[in-house]
Amino acid sequence: MQEKRDAPLRSDAQQNRERILTVALDELTRCGDVPLSAIAKKACVGQGTFYRNFPNRESLVLEVYQYGVRQVSDRASHLLAAHSPDRALRAWMTELAQYAMVKAGLADALRKATSSRGTLAGLGHGPLSSAVTLLLRANDEAGTIRPGVTPDDFMLAIAGLWQIDPHGDWQTRSARLLDLVMDGLRAGAPRAAQDKAQDKAQDEARVEVKDKA
Length: 213
Known about the structure:
The chain has 11 helices and no strands. It is an all-alpha fold. Residues 1-7, 116-121 and 199-207 have low confidence and may be disordered. The chain is elongated, with a radius of gyration of 23 Å.
């Protein structure tokens, strides 16, 4: 009896698939022409197991691309659990920059795997949008960014990441770009206005006490 294609994978089969994707992400980023047999060998799976999961190079490359997107998207909730909303957002932006460089490294593999732009359109957009929505909502509720920023606003603001040369000093350039974006998001934030008002009130109180003395 043939298994349904959408049936959940057994734990060992899921582990094999995850291991293949982890190895493939690393290998394809370094070389788009890496043989599939080399990926299977490094992932410690047989050829049969490999091709049951990924029958051809295109299916593997597209899944690797989406796998990288899911990894960086899933980090949003973890960062929010460990940091204040604005710091979580800034840290996630750094991880997104690193992902952008990985995407650039996969460019050759993506081009060779498929020539159809329609095939690539929208890949990963859903998970990234969900992560951005989660981060922006947390910051909006905390008053740490300006009101009314939408996920589309955010993605347009950081679009320059994908224009940075991954072979140059991308860490410095991306950090500068993202700092500028973060400064813009913080400008006009309700929390910043409250803090500024409190600082002003404290300064005035100190001046008044000094005058009375």
